[in-house]
Amino acid sequence: MRLLPPPGPARILTLGTLVKTVGRGLWLVASALFLTRSVGLSATQVGIGLTISALVGVLASTPSGYLADRVGPRGVQVGALLVAGTLTVGLIAVRSFPTFVLVGAATALADAVERGARGALIAGAIPADQRVRTRAYLRATTNVGISVGAVLGGFAIAADTRTGYVALILTTAAASLAAALVFLRLPRIAPVAAPTHGPRLIALRDRPFLAFTLVDGLMSMHFSLLTIALPLWIAGHTRAPVWMISALTLVNTGLVVLLQVRAAGAAATVPAAARAARRAGVAIALACVLFAVSGALPTAGAVGLLGVGSLAHVIGELWHSAAGWAISFGLAPTNAQGQYQGAYGMGYELGKMLAPVVVTTLALGWGVPGWLVLAALFLLLGALVPPVVRWAERTRPTSGPAEPVPALSLDRRSRGSIWQAGSRADGAGTATGGIGAPRGRATTRP
């Protein structure tokens, strides 16, 4: 597998993403400690602030994409990164819960604008047959960047001083500003004229697409299995050693980096992507069953089942991510890619909000029966994707702006927000890990 895409817009996007996510990885590992130990907020206050910020991100997703369509995605993305970097510096001034909520909500808004613009930018700068592969490169890069940043951020945690946290915040802000400069090298994408009649936010009136967004967003709750439910399950409900938590995270991250581009081939067309999503549901359901059984076995058996279950999970994760990108691009009209990518991200943000409560209540509160319920849920969600996508395809215009996703050009050489509580490389769920997110793990969907 090539480490970087060929020279051109895809490579610039990849390099800018690497710079940005290294900075966010720095913040990822230290955010909770900074807010509780340096600012003096309680864990409850941090959680409430995160929820408010997440709501802002959900509500702003589709309008942000619409803005990128109308103004031009490159300028919107660069501007959003500059604003986000400036607001990050404002963290230094946070001394109370109200200021935390204010800065957090403003930063979540900037992050939502940046995510919406990114989807429109990929649609405008990358040929249709290369978009899913480009998304795959960005997701692999996100995992590398956040992992590197998390390691570097460990020095600030070890120091545990106000000075160390301030230095980390300034470095995070500098990374956002530097990423904006990198993205300025991208070609300018001309704005798309607003429709002369009818509704402006057409994505919010596209019921089949919204149905897919909801199903895909709920399915994205599986990212919290590895980052929230499984660590607590291993530590409190199995005989496996606690080092398995780190080991499984490292294996997952490594496999995503190595295999995400190759896995994009499973989503070469919209129908193929729908089938990949169905297979993803099967793989993730199998992982849930194996995790459930691991609690009843001795150490060796538990370690083995946890390893196999994690492998099944990452296979489902790779298929699910690639499928979502292909379907969201393929169902969107060319004159509204930004708002459709924003709406797609809205579903992911909703799933991310629900995931901590759902997975902890079922997996940890209910135990084995809860894991089995989760397995049935993911199996059902995956099975729903093909019929929902067929419904959506029947409602696309037979002629006009709809742009299908043609087969990916994957030859043998190429195969192979700081305020978010968890994430997937996204991106449209893109986003990044954030305050209170599990350390050292990037689950964003760029």
From TrEMBL:
What organism is the protein native to?
Micromonospora chokoriensis
Record domain Major facilitator superfamily (MFS) profile: where: 9-394
Question: ATP-binding: is it a keyword of this entry?
Answer: no
State the name under which the record lists this protein.
Answer: Major Facilitator Superfamily protein
The uppermost taxa in this organism's lineage are: Bacteria, Bacillati, Actinomycetota, Actinomycetes, Micromonosporales
Record bears the keyword Membrane: yes
What does the UniProt entry say about where the protein is found?
A: Cell membrane
Q: Which PROSITE patterns match?
A: MFS
The UniProt entry lists membrane topology as: Multi-pass membrane protein
Q: Write down a Pfam family by its short name.
A: MFS_1
What are the GO cellular component annotations? Answer: plasma membrane
Keywords attached to this entry: Cell membrane, Membrane, Transmembrane, Transmembrane helix, Transport
Identify the SUPFAM superfamilies for this entry: MFS general substrate transporter
Q: Which residues cross the membrane?
A: 12-35, 47-68, 74-94, 140-159, 165-184, 209-234, 240-261, 282-315, 368-389
List the InterPro entries hit by this protein, alphabetically.
Answer: MFS (IPR011701), MFS_dom (IPR020846), MFS_trans_sf (IPR036259), MFS_Transporters (IPR050171)
The Gene Ontology terms for molecular function here are: transmembrane transporter activity
Spans annotated as Disordered: 395-446
